[in-house]
Amino acid sequence: MFIFSNDDINAVLSMRDCIDAFEHTYRDVAAGQAVNGHRSDMITETARADSVYLLKMVGAVVPRYAIGAVRINSDILSFPTHNGKTRKVKIPAAAGNRWVGLVMLFNTQTGAPLALFPDGVIQRMRVGATSGLGVHYLARHDARTAAILGSGWQAGAQAQAIAAVRSLDKLYIYSPDETRRRIFAQQLEQQLSIPVEAAVSAEQAVRQADIVLCATNSLQPVLSHDWLRPGMHVGSIREGELAADELKIFDRIIVHDPGNMADDHLVVARGIEHREKSSPLMRTLDQAPALSALISGQVEARQSAAEITAFLNYHGLGYQFAAAGAVLLEKALAAGRGVELPDEWFTQDVHS
Amino acid sequence: MFIFSNDDINAVLSMRDCIDAFEHTYRDVAAGQAVNGHRSDMITETARADSVYLLKMVGAVVPRYAIGAVRINSDILSFPTHNGKTRKVKIPAAAGNRWVGLVMLFNTQTGAPLALFPDGVIQRMRVGATSGLGVHYLARHDARTAAILGSGWQAGAQAQAIAAVRSLDKLYIYSPDETRRRIFAQQLEQQLSIPVEAAVSAEQAVRQADIVLCATNSLQPVLSHDWLRPGMHVGSIREGELAADELKIFDRIIVHDPGNMADDHLVVARGIEHREKSSPLMRTLDQAPALSALISGQVEARQSAAEITAFLNYHGLGYQFAAAGAVLLEKALAAGRGVELPDEWFTQDVHS
């Protein structure tokens, strides 16, 4: 049983490997050869009056990799209101101002636990790799320019993902803070070895791009359909980034997994998140085809160079932790990373 | 973050403490002050052709103890057929012929992980403590004799549980193997400091007892309603131990949690377990009041010395791991047990 750190994971897990593993896995999903667990959200009071405690479990088994994965999040959530809008904020309440999210992997041939590690880096990679598959299957093959809206933790992975599936001549970055977007552009230019430019507005970035990926914390739509033109592909990782009543501009919308939305309504039902099931966005999310159907050929990809396509990469799936976990395990063990703990600590000579 | 072993847990976790913690917890459950997660059963192929892999997650949060608990089972299941009956057998396929079941505890005030330990001993204690609460609330207060049918791993905890809630003059043991039941009786006599007798038949044991707890692996009913008499209490921990068409003998039936049955139908739906939702047993299990309703006074307990009562302790709940885990944590830390690992391995400075 190995313990990996986020540093271990950063050192060995590449976006390209994740995208490849996810592509195989979504094919298996479409073929019914992988199983996703129920997501369970357990919400109770916590010590802080303005907060709640959320214990969340997801899981999946991907037989191709002989891996079962469980992801557990143990979060203190607060809901600050700013300018009349309520945001959900995770409080780093563990010692040293830290957050708690863990992934545990198991071997499906022996049942044995294989690894335990924090979910932060892998979470970011999985969101990026999934957006990358959206680009791979929906964007024009000759797309050469891209824009990232956002400059945070997730935005960097989105940039890596585009660069992994398309040969870019130019990448534009926009986020409201000028210093942040400039630094972020410099970092990406070094990291991706392509020209990266900080744009002065979202509109300027979008109007120059074939592919736009939104990776913001915004509660307001971050782009206008007026800026879009035939042949573009747009990705979004957070509800609210795209105006729900402007989704009709898209000729083709693919979502991560429509069935996966249902469980999330639990959170909504408890009044923690305010979202109408009957809203235009929810109707779209419930009815659009899944990424696995796209990848397996059950639904059509882009049908012309003029289509405007969208991939709404909302709500994760347990599969992603099993698939990225399989890559991590192989690469980390090959690189001699991690702390090995005695297997006997995590197995037993009695059974329940 | 502490790692505890089954030995640590055996050394510090008492049946009395578990029963007390469960009693508080079921009151909270009835009051809506604790949350149980969805159970998720993920079943796929495994290497052995005659087996399947099952990754199972349950969880719960009990604010009284500021504890969230997740239990994960990673099992290779086979289904051998013997005399036309199919049994479910967990194969100890991990290195050293070991099984894999783990519980992880989290602090609801900080989110921090607190402990990780195997589930075997605590699973047995929780089944015992729950049966003990059934006895406490349903058996006659002047019950002085008891019978345990079974001599296995669970049977010992059932005996401890009765002894914790009633002053017994005599305990009878029956299981088919004469040597096993004799040795088990001797062990219990030493452990419980009460006279324990190995009976020559289930009927002989039952006819002499005020309280009967069944804790067998039998697929056939282990007692006949002809052996029961007014004033008795019967407990069962496994479906099939009591004849479904004889349940009408009971004046009062309490089940562990009727709502909890639903998820288990998943396993049934996959043809792994063969059980009809419309069977008399399933109808009883779906309609009978829950233990939490009994303990909180929402439904009546025994109403006369003549009633024959039953508690069907089928299907665990995540709450039990949070409640027993809270006791374990307090007692084990006070006793200096466990291996402490760095908290930073299980927390992070990024969030997902």
Short description:
Two copies of one chain form a homodimer. The first copy, chain A, is built from ten helices and 18 strands.
Folded structure, characterized:
Chain A is α/β, with parallel strands linked by helices and 352 residues long. Chain A has two domains: 2-122 and 318-341, 2-Layer Sandwich (ornithine cyclodeaminase, domain 1), CATH 3.30.1780.10; 127-312, Rossmann fold (3-Layer(aba) Sandwich), CATH 3.40.50.720. Chain A has helices at residues 6-12, 15-30, 120-138, 153-165, 178-192, 202-207, 261-269, 280-287, 291-295, 318-334, and strands at residues 2-3, 35-36, 40-45, 51-62, 67-78, 81-82, 85-86, 89-91, 101-107, 113-118, 145-149, 170-174, 196-198, 211-214, 233-236, 252-255, 309-312, 339-340. The longest helix of chain A is centred in the middle third of the chain and has 19 residues, at 120-138. Chain A starts with a strand and ends in a 12-residue tail after the last strand.
Determine the fraction of residues in helical runs of chain A and give it as a percent range: 25-40%
Low-confidence stretches of chain A: 261-274
Tally the helices of chain A: what do you get? 10
CATH superfamily of the largest domain in chain A: NAD(P)-binding Rossmann-like Domain
Q: Structural class from helices and strands of chain A?
A: alpha/beta
Largest sheet of chain A: 9 strands, mixed
Can you identify the CATH class of the largest domain in chain A?
Alpha Beta
Average predicted local confidence, pLDDT of chain A? 91
Rg over C-alpha atoms of chain A, rounded to the nearest angstrom: 20 Å
Multimeric status of the protein: homodimer
